[in-house]
Known about the structure:
Elements: H1 2-23, E1 36-42, E2 49-57, E3 62-68, E4 71-78, E5 81-88, E6 94-101, E7 111-118, E8 122-131, E9 136-145, E10 151-155, E11 159-162, E12 165-168, E13 173-177, E14 183-191, E15 195-202, E16 208-216, E17 221-225, E18 229-232, E19 235-239, E20 245-249, E21 256-263, E22 272-280, E23 286-295, E24 300-304, E25 308-311, E26 314-318, E27 325-329, E28 337-346, E29 351-359, E30 366-374, E31 381-384, E32 390-393, E33 396-400, E34 410-413, E35 421-428, E36 437-445, E37 451-459, E38 464-467, E39 473-476, E40 479-483, E41 491-494, E42 501-508, E43 520-528, E44 549-557, E45 563-566, E46 572-576, E47 579-582, H2 596-599, E48 623-626, H3 645-679
Parallel strand pairs: 8-14, 15-21, 22-28, 29-35, 36-42
Antiparallel strand pairs: 1-2, 1-48, 2-5, 3-4, 3-6, 6-7, 8-9, 10-13, 11-12, 12-14, 15-16, 17-20, 18-19, 19-21, 22-23, 24-27, 25-26, 26-28, 29-30, 31-34, 32-33, 33-35, 36-37, 38-41, 39-40, 40-42, 43-44, 44-45, 45-46, 46-47
Helix pairs in contact: 1-3
Amino acid sequence: MKRLKKTILSYFMTLVLALGCAAGINIPAAAAPAPTINISSQATDRYGYQTFTVSASGAETFYYVATANGSQIGAGSFGSGTHTIEFYSPDSILLQVTADYDSNDDGIAESTQVAIGYSAQAYYVTVTCQGTDGQFLQSEQVFLDALNYPSVTYTAPASFDLGGTVYTISNNSYLLQYGTDNVTLQYSPSTKEARSFNVYYVDESDAVIYSDTVTLNYGEGYTLTAPATYEANGETYQLESRNTSYDITYDNAASEYVFEYARVIDAPAAPYEITINFVDADNDNAVLYSISQTVDVDALVHIDLPSTYEANFKQYQLAEGVENYIEREFSSTRSTVYNIPYVVADESVPYDVTINFVDYDNPETILSARTMTVTPDGEPMTYDINSTPTLEINGVVYQVLSGQGNGNGQIVHTYGTSARTYNVYYAAQEVNDPQPYTVTMRYISVEDNSVLDTQEVEVAYGESVEFEAAPENITVGDTNYILLNGQDDPIVHEYNDSQSSYAVYYRDASVETEVEVEPEVITQVVTQYVTEEDGTVVVYEDGTVAPPVAVPVTTVTDGEGNTTNYNEDGQQVDITDGNITVLEDEETPLAQEPDAAETDPADDASQDDSADTASEEEQPESTTTLEDETTPLAQLPADADSSNGSSMNMPLIIGGIAAAAVIIIAGAAFIIVRKKGGAK
């Protein structure tokens, strides 16, 4: 029993000791948070004025001081919240904001929070565009920054269109530099002048049968309508244009409006011909190509027009808005002439040049051929004749003849040269050297296809001959003949040229043309395939197809626009599907509809306006936020202050926990001792 009492007493003393130790412990309180200060600088709308935005919280009063170049320019105080403070100074401004606070929550403010910010030195210049008559035109703000954008080139609109008055400025570029105040640009006003446009009615030959000029003042409108028929020069014309009326305003008026009319003819009673001209719309409607078509009684003729056409080393395409076909009813009383406008799509197009390897003993026999493409922007085509010294055809070996080509043994073709075919002669190895042959020049009358004069010149192997330019006039008997246009150049013939006959065409000077158009001669090259009598293409024993032959054809257009084709011997010919047929003297050829072999249209044609626009360099609105100088939280004191209420709470809590622990231990010990006593 005594032992038990001692044990309880020891536990009680331990509890008292624990409580006493606990009462002597002093734990410091947590520090109060520092105030929050954020400073940002804003761009202003005038030079020299600099604005700060300050967001502050955590203190009752905040104090600020602003300095520039070390001199104070402003000071004051404010409470919690967001505040805007503005100062005037051309120099950079330093803003310092402070706040005192109680860092350890003892009721005494002994700490200071400090934040510093610098001005952005940025502002907006207002640029105003104004007429000299005081009319406001436009106002715009331009951003300037002393550090990043100290100068900006501002480009104002060159003009302002305000109804009937246009305001213009001689120099719309203005240099804005940091420190510039608001700017006003002066524009000069002027009244819009009246605008005029021309109206034309033209016939199928593009001759003007009516014209007028219409003038519009600013703001006016005009409805232009062409009549369905029009009487002029004792003839009746019917309107052919698809667009028959236009609503025209001052702003959308074109420089001219053209309506196409066709002369009305008597109702037909027998088959007749129509003429279709492909004309160059960019060159006074010069005729590029013509075809004729017979319209039978009660028939309907449909003619498809090629979308593209090549002539004179150019590629043309059908003018915009023109139908790609022509349909003609027999009963139509429209003029029989159709002018189809084409426009230039490509000023220069590639073409093929053919080199024929010809059997010298049989000049009509082409042993082989080679085709080379010549481009307008490429190097001239050059073929070395000796690059193929021999050919073996059907077991026969042919040797190229020496002395062909230029001095270097070459054929050189420059883009734009009229020739499309060159012959290189080969002979069986036992054949003797080639002999001279005769080249013929004929002067021919287009009225009756009679030969007025003939010149014959012999050309030796490896040489060339030249026919001087034909005389402008020739007199035969009592008749004077005039040289047709397009034949002014001399003609040079090389020995290996495939053409051996030439013709120059004249007309009877006493025959008057119905229209003031001088007859003209155009030389073209028609590619003709070598065919059997039944019309099939010739195929050699080795399976190769006989290459096409380029045949020169001369087209003579008389003063009425009628065309006649002649071969190199001056014979009238008909061109159909790439084949050339010699006509009887009394037969008048009917030109056929163009096909791929004649027109060789390209698959497609392609066809930039741009205007330079000066634009202002856009600068984003900038806000500079400067980080605060952070004031660290005060540390806990080394020695506790007994007067601090927060410091007294902790020892009591610890003491209570210790007392509870001692009581639990003592109870456990008492139970154990009692059990042991009972056991005894």
